[in-house]
Amino acid sequence: MTALHKYLVALFASILVPASGLSQEVINTDTHRLEEVAEGVYFASGNGALYTMSNALIIERDNDVVVVDSHITPAAGRALMNSIEVVTDKPITTLINSHFHYDHANGTPAFGPNIQIIGHEYTYKKLTEEPANEQTYRSSLVRFDNTVANLEERITNASGSERAELQTQLEFWQAHVRAQDEIDFIPPTVSMSDVMTLFRGGREIQIHFLGRAHTGGDLAVFLPQERIVFTGDMMLGGISYLGDGYVAEWADTLQGLKQLDFDLILPGHGPSIADLNRIDYVQTYYADLTEEVRRLKSAGYSAEEAAARADLRQHADTLGVDQLGANLQAVQRMYDLIDGIAE
Q: What pTM was computed for the model?
């Protein structure tokens, strides 16, 4: 696990607050936890039986099902489809991918060739150019290979119950690495640039592009009648991965999100969020990070130096940022955007 991965896991564990009293029912399948957040609307997260990495949303209509995000591999996507069959026998006709990242869109092949796939124009661009060479995806492959190698090394020095536990972990990650061999990058069949509304089968589904944030094409899927929004990684309960982000624009994008009328956020990672003040906390962090990085760059510091010196400790109470420094990958991305060497 990289330092960034450890940082994000710790952050999610410390700051995400699950919604209370909002779900009607929780259904456990072989691979998923399905939280019914409104009638026929399920917030899906993996239960650890296989690696899904991201959350998904299941929206049942009168005669069919719409799914938002497809998980990290076709195997995880198939597991999601099998879990959907536990709650409905209606066919899945539409898949909305919130953005192009591997952990949200690489499960798409599991849904077959006849499904409608909706995504932003930027997602289409990323998934039709050189998706296998995207740095975020390539680094994930290295990370998972390193996880397997690390566990294999630890097993050689372990004994008894520790060895058995490590062996279980090793088999889990080996299964995920094998599952990656099946990945085929599939772009949207329908692309959008601003707003799209699906109104069929007794359900209104609004799809909004509110501005650049986690990527150049993040979509928010809004159910106005249910007052629920699925935000992908544009809005988590804490700090998102910033390596492909547009931090200087992110606060404005979240301001646009706040104009929608909802009571519950379903993020791309972590539990559902009922405390809408979290939008303000994250929004302020991105604005402060932008100002701090610009200040340090203007003072002549390298990205490495700026990452070490950045002081965001004013966010300790809200986001758990209690140490000096910022993520280097995030700061380097910001430097590259300022210098015009990144898109």
A: 0.91
